[in-house]
Design brief:
It holds the Pfam family PIG-L. The protein is of the alpha+beta class and 552 residues long. It has 9 helices and 36 strands. A hairpin with a 4-residue loop joins strand 31 and strand 32.
């Protein structure tokens, strides 16, 4: 046992930035359906937040009892596993306080705090799991029917009594929890899982509790000026694994601590595939910054920062998280939150709707756009609702093809004036050269990126399954010219040189120069972006704001 604990300590410490954790100032709140969802689908992000010294709270909407009997005993076992795993991630003894957290309407949730680090907290609402035969589909029914009401299931040994919830009380409880813990950053699950995957779950295409949890969280945060990150769940297994071996080993070690208390799980299939990946549902891409300005979506607003001054941009639609792409310093495209429709802002002109490309499939989302200026035209590329790639030039939308493209695509203007579009798919890289007709022809590739492909003048870069970086060069016919050992946990950003920026396995923004030298600039919370001249990099940081770093 001592050997196992020592190994776990080594693995977790390997994810720790070099300096001792500073006094907590950031506050991260995760809202998930079940005990284990955050360790499976939101790590290493949660583990890195804990190791940084941030205030970290996970809210579990359901008891996670499934159809195991007696339900209160199994719920208690899952809570024990969660406590053990969080204590391990925090580097503290598995010793917790338990109290009642007051919620609106006289209701209560159970609040558990890590005794050595009371800023680490777990909140259990205890709503029934979707698979509980006494309350089938409880969370989904609460979401669909405002009049529906269900009782909670306090775990054995709980300090709170059973109560009842309806749709309004769940939303009100989440708002009360947000007030209590004052997050700077909120994470939740996938509100609209990709219908290409996980068909065994029917119309939800994922565990229904995951989907309902994400929708409750979105609703509770409407109007809040907070970044909300959505994470993919079961369907990360339908995309290539994307975490370095060292990070996967640390995730497995933590999950093993949880699994000691939960006989229904294992470290084998399907859990091994979930442990090997982490993916945002709506990735931010690498085009949301340009010379001296960047833009992103926060709290249903499009926020533009110019020369360090932040302002809200008026738009005739509610923008979607992760959907901003600058075509050039004066032109940007953004998606509408619900439909995914693309809009263009060209300087001071009114917003221009660009619509959505065919095919149109209800329930399917468009991927985030990538835009590039070609003279007075703006070319936009997206992953369409059919799972392929479509582009829009001055002549309207044209479908390039594909069915298994991942979320992101990237458009780049080559030196000869042609536009190239690149995307990762489950079977390898897809690459097209646009033709004068406004559509395109395939370009052969043998590469296998695991996520977004960053592009700049003359170069493209992506992450492979080991977390290493691969660089393609236009002068080599868009073939591989470099492979860089990186242990990246984000897809890269790129600037001419090429200079690359990644989030590394320690959660730090790292710059990789053409000569191979590297500089770590500070902790970040997601994929970085670089300005077109490579002088600056920017990323979401733990205070919930965008931080700009000068690139030395």
């Amino acid at each position: 046992m001592r050997t196992a604990v020592a190994l776990l300590t080594i693995l977790l410490c390997s994810l720790t930035p070099g300096a001792a954790a500073a006094a907590p100032r950031a506050s991260h709140v995760q809202v998930v359906a079940h005990p284990d969802d955050d360790m499976l689908f939101m790590s290493p992000d949660v583990a890195l937040a804990l190791r940084s010294g941030a205030r970290v709270t996970t809210v579990f909407l359901t008891a996670g009892e499934s159809d195991v009997r007696p339900p209160a005993d199994y719920a208690a076992s899952r809570q024990s596993g969660t406590r053990a795993a969080f204590a391990a991630m925090a580097g503290a003894a598995d010793d917790w306080t338990r109290s009642a957290l007051a919620l609106p309407g006289g209701r209560q949730a159970e609040l558990q705090r890590l005794r050595q680090r009371p800023e680490v907290a777990l909140v259990f609402l205890g709503l029934p799991d979707d698979n509980d035969p006494d309350s089938r589909h409880a969370l989904s029914e609460l979401w669909r029917d405002p009049a529906h009401r269900v009782p909670t299931i306090p775990a054995t040994g709980s300090v709170v009594s059973a109560t009842g919830h309806d749709r309004a009380s769940v939303i009100g409880s989440l708002r009360r929890i947000v007030d209590e813990f004052a997050p700077t950053l909120v994470r939740t699950q996938d509100p609209r899982p990709d219908p290409r995957y996980q068909g065994q779950w029917g119309a939800a295409h994922d565990h229904p509790d995951h989907v309902a949890t994400a929708r409750f969280t979105e609703t509770a945060l409407r109007g809040a000026d907070l970044p909300l990150l959505h994470y993919r769940d079961y369907n990360v297994a339908d995309a290539p694994a994307n975490l370095p071996d060292r990070v996967v080993a640390a995730k497995r070690a933590v999950f093993a601590r949880y699994a000691e208390h939960d006989p229904q799980v294992s470290l084998g299939a399907p859990y091994d595939a979930w442990l090997a990946s982490m993916r945002l549902r709506r990735p931010w891409g690498t085009r949301w910054a340009t010379a001296d300005r960047h833009a992103h979506v926060r709290g249903n607003r499009l926020v533009l920062t110019e020369s360090g001054v932040e302002s809200a941009v008026d738009a005739p639609f509610v923008p979607r998280e992760g959907s901003v792409s600058f075509a050039d310093p004066s032109r940007l495209v953004v998606q509408e939150r619900d439909s995914g429709a693309v809009w263009l802002q060209d300087g001071d002109r009114p917003w221009l709707p660009l619509g959505t490309p065919p095919p149109r499939r209800p329930g399917a989302d468009l991927g985030p756009p990538s835009a590039v200026s070609v003279g007075d035209r703006v070319v936009v590329a997206v992953r369409d609702q059919g799972g392929g790639v479509s582009v829009r030039d001055s002549g309207g939308w044209c479908r390039l093809g594909g069915t298994d493209v991942l979320d992101e695509v990237s458009a780049v203007l080559a030196g000869d004036g042609e536009v190239h579009v690149m995307a990762a798919s489950r079977t390898g890289m897809r690459h097209w050269r646009l033709t004068p007709s406004g559509c395109g022809e395939p370009v052969a590739s043998t590469e296998h990126p695991v996520g977004g492909i960053a592009t700049t003048s003359g170069y493209a870069a992506f992450r492979d399954s080991r977390g290493d970086l691969v660089v393609l060069a236009e002068h080599a016919g868009w073939q591989r010219t470099r492979t860089i050992d990186a242990e990246a946990v984000s897809d890269p950003a790129i600037a001419p040189g090429p200079v690359l920026a990644i989030r590394n396995a320690d959660g730090l923004l790292e710059i990789v120069r053409p000569d191979g030298s590297r500089t770590a600039l500070g902790p970040v919370e997601g994929r970085p972006v670089m300005t077109p001249d490579g002088d600056q990099a920017a990323a979401l940081t733990d205070d919930g704001l965008i931080t700009t770093f000068d690139v030395p």
